[in-house]
Amino acid sequence: MSLIEAKGLRKVFRQAVKEPGLRGAVKHLFTQRYVDKHAVDGIDLTIREGETVAYVGPNGAGKSTTIKMLSGVLVPTSGELRVDGFVPHKQRMENAVRIGAVFGQRTQLWWDIPVRESLNLLKDIYQVPEDAFRRNLDAFVELLGMEEFIHLSARKLSLGQRMRADLAAALLHDPKIVYLDEPTIGLDVSVKQKIRSFIKQMNRDKGTTLLLTTHDLGDIEDLCERLVIIDHGRIIYDGSLQAVKDAFARERTIHLQLGSELAEPSLLFSDLPEVGMDRTGPYRLAIRFDRFRITASEIVKRIISQADVADFHIDEPNIESIIRRVYEGSLDLELAAESPVAASREA
Amino acid sequence: MKKYVSLAVCSMQNTLSYRLSFVLNFLGSFIALLATYFLWRAIYDGQSELAGFDWNQMKSYLLVTFFANSMLSYYSESGITNKVMDGTVAMDLLKPLNFQKARLAESLGSCVLEGLLSAVLISVLAIAAFGIPMPVDGVSGILFAISMLSSILVKFGIVYCTALICFYTTSGFGVIWARMAVTNLLSGALVPFAFFPDWLRNVAMALPFQGIVNTPTTIFLGMSDTREAILLIAVQWFWIAALWLLGRSMWGWAVRQITIHGG
Amino acid sequence: MTRTTLSVRNTPRRILFLYRRLFGQQLKAILEYSSDFYVMIGAAAFTQIVGFLFLWVVFSRIPVIQGWGFWEVAFMYAMIYFSEGVGSLFFEGTWRMLRLVNMGELDRYLVRPMPIVLQIFCTGIGMNGIGNIAIGGAIIGMSLYHVDIDWSITSVLSALVVLASALAVRIGINLAANCSAFWIRTSGNAFPIMVHNMGEFAKYPITIYSLGLQLFLALGVPFAFVSFVPAAVLFGKEDWAAYGWLSPLAAAYVFGIALLLLRIGLRRYESSGN
Question: Which UniProt keywords apply (chain C) (predicted)?
Answer without folding.
Answer: Membrane, Transmembrane, Transmembrane helix
